[in-house]
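Appendix C reproduces, verbatim, an entry submitted by the partner laboratory led by Prof. M.T., so that reviewers can inspect both the input and the predicted structure.
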Amino acid sequence: MIKLAIFDVDGTLVDSGTTIHRALEVSLSEHGHECPPRHEAQKVIGLSLLEAMQKLVPHGDHPTLAESYKDAFFDLRQTGQAEEQLYDGIEAMLAAFEADDWLLGMATGKSDRGLQHLIEVHGWEGRFVARHTADRHPSKPHPSMILANLSDTGAEAINAVMIGDTGYDMAMAVNAGVAGIGVGWGYHDDSELETAGATTIARTPGELLGISQTSIVPQ
């Protein structure tokens, strides 16, 4: 049996909310738009950039805003102002999954460039056997990224879990026919996760392996 754990990135593995909000402030103000406060703006984290901009600025020039955001985030990273630290316990949690013979995948609203930067910074090259981003797939909650993870690894949906912090992740899991496990330290609250279809919610990274083990169908 191939066991597959698919992880969201922002809000699940790394705490990037401060930098995302700063890049939004810069990019929106450049085009005369006011950025919502962080607790509101972070609700779009996880969506592809175009969809995020459509929610934040319904009548804006969404492609231009998306490009401005990319430039702003890249500038913050290049000047050492980007904060994309791992949440406490993430490294130990990933090691525990690997020790239990799980394959690890990713399904993220990040760009390929942004994800590759994180892979290099945290020494994750080769750790995640499937990596799918918003650059090559429809936005969450479309199931495309999860289905591509399943295809890459040969895992069956009944033996896979999607782990994420937003309702978009949980709805994507439902749409793909895999168990959705919410995490309680990210950018959406419990009610949003549960309404979207989370089977359960982990309070700490250390709980995730045990929850995942009970969420798949043993063979």
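The first helix runs from residue 17 to 30. Additional entries are available on request from the coordinating office.
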